[in-house]
Amino acid sequence: EMQLVESGGGWVEVGGSLRLSCSASRVNLRYYCIAWFRQAPGKEREGVANIDSGGVTTYTDSVKGRFSIAKDSAKTTLYLQMNNLKPEDSGMYYCVAAYGANYCPPYWADFGVRGQGTQVTVSS
């Protein structure tokens, strides 16, 4: 059974950076769309970034130019580099996966494999 484990969250000041990691076990991420979602208290869960099996990346507008998603060459770890962090970036960040070639589904419910999440707090 495929498992995803996130790490790298923490507390950072406004303008700071964090790099989240998502390690996959029992699977090669090459054949999956992998995405990061986040949810802040009292707010709806939202997709932050994704990368499809072909390496095409997509970002939500609020993080474009600040966040970068990438897979390592072994296709077992996904990263989310977050720069110039803002208080509104705070929340629980989840790594999720959906099997499929060159396609990323738009909704949380479409991702059958999900990690437990890692907390990001940006303090002003």
Q: Distance between the terminal alpha carbons, to the nearest Å?
A: 40 Å
Q: Describe the largest sheet.
A: 7 strands, mixed
Q: Report the portion of residues in β strands.
A: over 45%
Computed over alpha carbons, the radius of gyration is: 13 Å
Can you give keywords for this protein?
mainly beta, 124 residues, 11 strands
Structural account:
This protein has 124 residues and is an all-beta fold. Helix content is 0%, strand content 50%. It is built from no helices and 11 strands. The strands form 2 sheets. Strands 2, 4, 5, 6, 9, 10 and 11 form a 7-stranded mixed beta sheet that branches. It is globular, with a radius of gyration of 13 Å. The model has no long low-confidence stretch (mean pLDDT 94).
SSE topology sketch:
Layout: E1 3-7, E2 10-13, E3 18-25, E4 32-39, E5 46-51, E6 57-59, E7 67-71, E8 77-82, E9 91-99, E10 113-114, E11 118-123
Parallel strand pairs: 2-11
Antiparallel strand pairs: 1-3, 3-8, 4-5, 4-9, 5-6, 7-8, 9-10, 9-11
